[in-house]
Amino acid sequence: MPVSVSVRLPDKTAQALDDLASATDRPRTYLIVRALEAYLADHADYQVALDRLRDKDDPVISSGELRRRLGRKD
Questions:
Q1: What's the domain range around 27?
Q2: Structural domain count, the chain
Q3: Residue 6 lies in a domain
Q4: Residue 3 pLDDT > 80, yes or no?
Q5: Is 31 within 8 Å of 24 (Cβ atoms)?
Q6: 17-63, pLDDT tens digit by residue?
Q7: How many angstroms separate the CA atoms of 33 and 40, rounded?
Q8: 3 in a domain, yes or no?
Q9: How far apart are CA 55 and CA 59, in angstroms?
Q10: How many CB atoms are located within 10 Å of the residue 39 CB?
Q11: What pLDDT score does 52 carry?
Q12: Predicted confidence band at 73 (pLDDT cuts at 50, 70, 90)?
């Protein structure tokens, strides 16, 4: 079930949103939902990367070692 959320946007951001909605013939809600989904997906990827970086049992290798393991010479 959709949930209603109210936010205050700076004038420049609101105008940019309106301009994009007009240019793409999409409602503002559509654009806001897509932007939030993209942000949340990026944040989840970032959190996975941080968790892996902090994992003491996950070995860190150099880029040269990675290329060697992949059979790349460049």
A1: 11-70
A2: 1
A3: no
A4: yes
A5: yes
A6: 999 999 999 999 999 999 999 999 999 999 998 888 888 888 888 99
A7: 10
A8: no
A9: 8
A10: 10
A11: 85
A12: confident
Residue with tokens 């793409």: 24
Residue 72: the pLDDT is 85
Residue appearing with tokens 């939902």 = 33
Using CA atoms, how far apart are residues 28 and 22, in angstroms rounded to an integer? 9
Three-class secondary structure assignment of 4-70 = CCCCCCCHHHHHHHHHHHHHHCCCHHHHHHHHHHHHHHHHHHHHHHHHHHHCCCCCCCCHHHHHHHH
List of residues 6+ apart from 21 with CB closer than 8 A: 27, 28, 30, 31
In a domain, 50, yes or no: yes
Residue 19 lies in a domain: yes
Instruction: Give CA–CA dist 24/37, Å, rounded.
Output: 18
What pLDDT is attached to residue 4? 94
pTM over 0.70: no
